[in-house]
Amino acid sequence: MTSVLGLAPVVPVVVIDDAADAVPLACALVAGGLPAIEVTLRTPAALDAIRAIADEVPGAVVGAGTVISPVGVAEAVDAGARFLVSPGWTEGLLEAMKVSGVPFLPGVSTASEVVALLERGVREMKFFPAEAAGGTPYLRSLAGPLPQARFCPTGGISLASAPAYLALPNVGCVGGTWMLPGDAVAGRDWARVESLARHAATLRA
Ligand code: 3PG
């Protein structure tokens, strides 16, 4: 696997507080048609959650999100992460991601950052925070001068706005938490998560 953008049109961004939720949550997402799952490194349970999904949910392609340090890269890959996502990037983080052996999406929100990553041989990026940073008009504006760059926009996207992102020529997938309502996860309503995933999975550029 060399690309994150080709895995699925929608990548759920998951914040897991209890690692025991990881496997049933991932199973529900996979059953709903969303195999690529980004578990954010924002909770103490995140690495255990990644490990559990990698070990126990064969249909899932689990990745790590909110990876903001070389240590985070190493820990995520050791836990079984098959891709890495960051809200931003530094030279050190980029280098660690490059040598990790798994595909990665460094985060950008300006044209200069896109140019800097292209200069470093990186063509796939996370556009974050997508809605606050300019949304679809901004991404559409980048497609003219910088057609080599392709994006996974994330941040503030909804079921209603996702199709407009997916229709852009430089968008490969969209990410977000919108198919994982807090009450469904807190209530362990996996049937509802599966149903919301199934709906999200029908979206396509
Ligand atoms: C993130 O990394 O937090 C994602 O961008 C999620 O954004 P969302 O909760 O606005 O979908």
In short:
The protein is an alpha/beta fold and 205 residues long. The chain has helices at 22-31, 46-56, 70-79, 91-99, 111-119, 135-143, 162-166, 182-186, 190-200; strands spanning 10-14, 36-40, 61-65, 84-85, 104-105, 107-108, 124-127, 150-153, 174-176. Helix 1 links the parallel strand 1 (10-14) and strand 2.
Structure description:
The chain has 205 residues and is α/β, with parallel strands linked by helices. Helices cover 39% and strands 16% of the residues. It contains 9 helices and 9 strands. The strands form 3 sheets. It has a 4-stranded parallel beta sheet with strand order 3-2-1-9. A 3-stranded parallel beta sheet has the order 6-7-8. Strand 7 (124-127), helix 6 and strand 8 (150-153) form a beta-alpha-beta unit. Helix 1 (22-31) runs parallel beside helix 9. 3-phosphoglyceric acid (3PG) binds next to strand 9. Residues 13, 65-66, 87, 128, 154-157, 175-178 line the site of 3-phosphoglyceric acid (3PG).
